[in-house]
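Researcher: Please predict.
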Amino acid sequence: MLAAERRNLILQEVHEKKKVVVNELSRQFNVSEETIRRDLERLEDEGHVTESYGGAVINEKSGIDLPFNIRWKANPEGKQKIAELVSREVEDGDHIVLDASTTAVFIAKNLKQKRHLTVITNSIENLLELWDVSGWDVIATGGLLKAGSMSMLGIRAAECIRSYNADKVFFSCKGIDLEKGVTDGNDEIGGIKQNMISAAAKVYLAVDSTKFGKAAFSRICGLSGLDVVVTDKKPDRKWLDAFEKAGIQCIYE
């Protein structure tokens, strides 16, 4: 097993269990404890974990975006439910924007029965998912390919998004908070999503229930910047009241 592959598996485990132990990882991967310590040092340098005695714990405050293959495995049932709800909101002939979230890939998979869609996206995974759909126009933003994230970011991606007027945007986030609004891990990602919001006539936040009440580092927009929230479970009354006050439609099952 390559060292990078092993570190990805360790990172996946620390996000599932919140902590890992050196001697257990050593046995699991059949490598020396010193090798595991070097892996954890590398993950700490990247901002993912904090080393502790005998192991490491997750860095909850990290603004680092997780690799796509790890984000993909978080609450897939919820993301599938959101995608099914979103598909009811998309009409044949729509021009839509999809971000590079894992939720957006579930959405892309569930839209293939639609006709004559135009999809603008900065997601490599969305492009791979939709490359063989006939009768659609799929537009890649271009830009800087972000290692591990399967997304295109930077000035060129933002310029491309700003050049279109879409009917709807569907994007996700790391957290949604009543006071702090919609947030993501860093300005680079958050800035692209701000451009997506500006390019669309109707703004949909597709966010699973685990993100409610959380705030990440970079603010994307306030609740007032949203038209619709699509989620996998009925939110608490305080959220429904806040959405109603802000004129936001909330869709759930």
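Model: The chain is about 40% helix and 25% strand.
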